Amino acid sequence: MPELAVSVPLGAGRVTRDLLVGDPASATSVKAARRHARELLAEPVRAFLSLGRPDLVAGTSKTFRSLARITGAAPSAAGPLVRRELHLVDLRLWSSRLAAISAADRSALPGVSALRAPQLLAGALVAEAAMDALGVETLVICPWATREGLIIRRFELLDAQIQREERQTSAML
């Protein structure tokens, strides 16, 4: 288990719905969303950095996968085990590009679905704020999202429980 786990209300859907006005989003709302992300991340990032500099930072959502794809990472057809990274320098460039185009135009980008396109800008702004705050230039894209991680962890716990019960049963025989 991690030493520190923090959840902040910065999901791409929420930030899009609550802060980004217009399609494409207005410059004022983009600036407000960027500031909001930095403010909400400040305290949790301080807590993380008090534990030391991270050796590895991973992005675990479909939004991160889409951002990596538009910045040049391998397509999903290359398989889940191909290393994909998101680089801050590329993300900065694409954050500006995403802010300037509509959701319909975003959906034409490689790896961006029509469902994900409206919230991709918000995801880019939050990712950029997080990478800046953590002082990382690159993050690794995890092929699985949080939901899959929780399912895998549950299977591991169930497997461990079954093994304990089998040992107890064989000890009683």
From TrEMBL:
Residues covered by the Ppx/GppA phosphatase N-terminal domain: 3-153
GO molecular function: pyrophosphatase activity
Pfam families with a match to the protein in the record: Ppx-GppA
InterPro entries noted in UniProt: ATPase_NBD (IPR043129), GppA/Ppx_hydrolase (IPR050273), Ppx_GppA_N (IPR003695)
PANTHER family: EXOPOLYPHOSPHATASE, RETROGRADE REGULATION PROTEIN 2
Similarity field: Belongs to the GppA/Ppx family.
Full protein name: Ppx/GppA phosphatase family protein
Upper taxonomic lineage: Bacteria, Bacillati, Actinomycetota, Actinomycetes, Micrococcales
